[in-house]
Amino acid sequence: MKKIQLISNYINKRKSEIDKFNSSNSIDKSIAINGRNLTNLGLFRKYITEYLHNHPGLNKDLIMVCRQLQSTAYGIPLEIYAFSKDKKFENYEYIMSDIFDHIIASVSYFDLQISEIATEKEVSK
Question: Model's pTM, two decimal places?
């Protein structure tokens, strides 16, 4: 994931901080769960946040955040807050669709999957 330009600097910096913490606390890293670690979901949230901050159609003066919500039986929902620069509804819809198209396409790079709830019609087939 270090090759993903929007988060490569973040990964290097965060990895250094985590390694320093684990080393100074004598964490046994022969087992991956011990100590602090980077996670694919955490990196994906950071990627989305950086993507939003770099998107030319979004208003940088207003809040932009990607946050994790409480997990459900279907997975861990992510919520995105962002505001477009353009207030025309059609343009807003295009900008939001463009962002979600990119996010959906990028999920697999983080070894994550999109989950959706099947409708009754789909289940009965």
Answer: 0.85
CA distances from residue 76 to 30, 54, 106, 120 in whole angstroms, order as listed: 28, 25, 17, 22
How far is residue 39's CA from residue 32's CA, in Å, rounded to a whole number? 11
**Per-residue pLDDT tens digits for 37-77:** 999 999 999 999 999 999 999 999 999 999 999 998 888 99
Nearest to 63 by CA among 39, 82, 88, 90: 82
* C-alpha to C-alpha distance for 37 and 57, rounded to whole angstroms: 33
Question: When comparing pLDDT for 122 and 70, which is higher?
Answer: 70
Q: What CATH architecture applies to the domain 39-114?
A: 2-Layer Sandwich (3.30)
* Residue boundaries of the structural domains of the chain: 1-37, 39-114
Contact 64, 76 (CB under 8 A): no
Give the tens place of pLDDT for each residue, 88-100: 999 999 999 999 9
DSSP secondary-structure letter at 19?
A: H
What is the rounded distance in angstroms from the CA atom of residue 30 to the CA atom of residue 91?
A: 51
